[in-house]
Automatic annotation (TrEMBL):
GO terms for molecular function: FAD binding; proline dehydrogenase activity. One of its GO terms (cellular component) is mitochondrion. This is Proline dehydrogenase. The keyword Electron transport does not apply. Its cofactor is FAD. Its EC number is 1.5.5.2. Keywords: FAD, Flavoprotein, Oxidoreductase, Proline metabolism. InterPro entries: FAD-linked_oxidoreductase-like, Proline_DH_dom, Proline_oxidase. One of its GO terms (biological process) is L-proline catabolic process to L-glutamate. Converts proline to delta-1-pyrroline-5-carboxylate. It catalyses: L-proline + a quinone = (S)-1-pyrroline-5-carboxylate + a quinol + H(+). Belongs to the proline oxidase family. It comes from Neonectria ditissima.
Length: 493
């Protein structure tokens, strides 16, 4: 079974949303939609157009115009595919996360909920707290607590027009600096570690692979496997026998089901160990194929990222396996040593775009160094930065992409970027037919109980603390969409 469906030059994006969907959404019983339901009814009767054009170039790396002038990117406002409830919930979330007044107390409250052992503050034991969180933050970022809820969420995203999802089991550990220092030395497996840490994580991850469909992704977070796994990673040692077998079982099931695995990045003290494990399983499951099962995660905000990627490409070239590259900027500014990162945001942006261009076009560069033929590779542009997404799209539109590519954003965040991808893919299909480059768009989301997801939600909120401008852009985009829908009622849009 080919895993490349919906990516690169393979089958086009599915598009099932239509103007009639607004009428159906307006008829929904959600109380949050009552005030502006007429907007949806009006929007179902008219087609909204946008003529906005953007151009840019990548300094130091020859690239075509990200938005060629002969391409009409959006037939209608990209965010029009979202329900009114989603728009209002996103607006409320971004108002809080972009506010220097509201965000700090919100973070303190979330930290208390994520780390407290008090039953009153435990969402899984306090039904009132669970109800509130599940209708707000949980609904914004998470897939569900069980298979029925997860399938409903995934179906909703695919009906909007997304190619698929990246699903992750919510169980994870984010260590403080004190916890990191006190992390014990590697030890032998114990019955307690197996019963309470490794096996529950493995079963949860196997269930995650079963929940998704062929062509989707599953993200593996090794920190969820417990203290023994953390100690092995910190010491840069191989996985213990039982943990290795669990990971191998997950890889086998994913390969059988046509699902791809993303080995997620973690804090710096664990990352070298994760890279070692990623390459070990990539050698086994990516050998002799152009479409990898195993993807590693590369953090462009780290100064060492170009060297790490170059070394992994050299290993793929030498050992004849395909390298799966999930390219991110990074998520641990608040916990990792500052000297590891680029000095400015501009340096991080330049690094990200240069690495993406190299892998996508399969060309060595001054940053990604190598000799001989570029090894087979596939790229996931995992970014909320609209400009980076457009630069990658420009390479695809120009026909210069040699690697399969997909795009991904977190569920509940950067919807203006995600929906532009969905709309642009549909428009390209209408204009160019089968010759149009596919723009596969995915959403990353976690599943698990409300309590299990709290640490994930806290980390998302902490990331927003370091990306205020980005969340302001999302806030403004949601507000603009809300105003557009209101104007449509009186014929002004």
């Amino acid at each position: 079974m080919s895993l490349a469906r919906g990516r690169g030059s393979c089958r086009p994006l599915r598009w099932t949303a239509s103007p009639s969907c607004y009428a159906r959404l307006a008829a929904s019983p959600a109380p949050i939609s009552n005030i502006l339901r007429p907007c949806l009814l009006a929007a179902s009767r008219r087609r909204i157009h946008s003529s906005e054009k953007r151009t840019s170039t990548l300094a130091g790396h020859p690239m075509p115009d990200p938005l060629p002038p002969n391409v009409n990117v959006a037939v209608r406002a990209p965010l029009s595919v979202l329900s009114l409830t989603m728009v209002l919930r996103s607006l409320a979330t971004t108002i809080v996360s972009s506010s220097p007044v509201l965000l700090p107390p919100s973070l303190r409250i979330m930290a208390a909920l994520a780390n407290s052992h008090n039953p009153v503050l435990n969402p899984d034991r306090n039904p009132l707290l669970r109800f509130f969180l599940k209708k707000t933050f949980y609904a914004q970022f998470c897939a569900g607590e069980n298979a029925v809820e997860v399938h409903r969420t995934i179906s909703g995203l695919k009906n909007i027009g997304f190619t698929g999802v990246i699903l992750c089991y919510a169980k994870e550990v984010v260590l403080t600096s004190d916890q990191a220092k006190s992390l014990g030395e590697p030890a032998k497996e114990t019955d307690d570690a197996l019963k309470n840490e490794i096996l529950p994580w493995a079963e949860g991850t196997l269930e995650t692979v079963r929940l998704v469909q062929p062509g989707d992704y599953v993200a593996l977070k090794f920190t969820g496997a417990g203290s023994l796994a953390l100690a092995q990673l910190k010491a840069r040692l191989p996985a213990t026998p039982t943990l290795y077998k669990c990971i191998d079982d997950i890889c086998q099931l994913a390969q059988q089901r046509g699902v791809r695995l993303l080995f997620d990045a973690e804090q710096d003290m664990l990352q070298d160990g994760i890279d070692d494990w990623t390459i070990e399983f990539a050698r086994k499951y990516n050998s002799g194929v152009n479409d990898p099962v195993i993807y590693g995660t590369y953090q462009a905000y780290k100064k060492a990222c170009p060297e790490v990627l170059s070394n992994h490409l050299a290993l793929a070239q030498k050992d004849k396996f395909s390298l799966g590259v999930k390219l991110v900027r990074g998520a641990y500014l608040g916990s990792d040593p500052r000297h590891l990162f680029h000095d400015t945001k501009e340096d991080t942006d330049k690094c990200y775009d240069t690495l993406a261009a190299s892998v996508l076009s399969r060309k060595w560069s001054s940053s990604v160094k190598g000799e001989g033929e570029y090894p087979p590779s596939s790229l996931m542009i995992a970014s909320h930065n609209a400009e980076s997404v457009r630069r990658a799209r420009a390479i695809c539109d120009a026909g210069a992409a040699k690697s399969d590519v997909s795009f991904a954003q977190l569920q509940g965040m950067a919807d203006e970027v995600s929906c532009e991808l969905v709309e642009a893919g549909q428009t390209a299909r209408k204009e160019k037919g089968n010759k149009a480059p596919a723009l596969p768009a995915y959403k990353y989301l976690v599943w698990g109980t409300t309590g299990e997801c709290m640490k994930y939600l806290l980390r998302r909120a902490q990331e927003n603390k370091d990306a205020v401008q980005r969340t302001r852009d999302s806030r403004d985009a949601m507000w603009t969409e809300l105003v557009r829908r209101c104007k449509s009622v009186v014929g002004m849009a």
